[in-house]
Amino acid sequence: MEKMKEALNDLLYAREELEAMLHREEEIINELSASIGGVPPPRGFPPSYGM
Q1: Coiled-coil ranges per the record (predicted)?
Q2: CA 18, CA 24: separation in Å to the nearest integer?
Q3: How do the pLDDT tens digits run along the chain, 51 residues long?
Q4: Which of 17, 19, 39, 48 fits a 20 to 30 Å CA distance from 28?
Q5: Positive/negative CA dihedral, 39, 44, 49, 50
């Protein structure tokens, strides 16, 4: 049972890290788009866990 708890915590941590990375990438894309006068791309699909 303890190993399952550790695995779940690892997955939750990895999800948080991925969300942070995607947010940083989105900010960079928006900054680059603004600097060249383009329109930022659409945000894409909402995460399934938020539904």
Answers
A1: 1-35
A2: 10
A3: 999 999 999 999 999 999 999 999 999 998 888 888 766 556 665 555 554
A4: 48
A5: positive
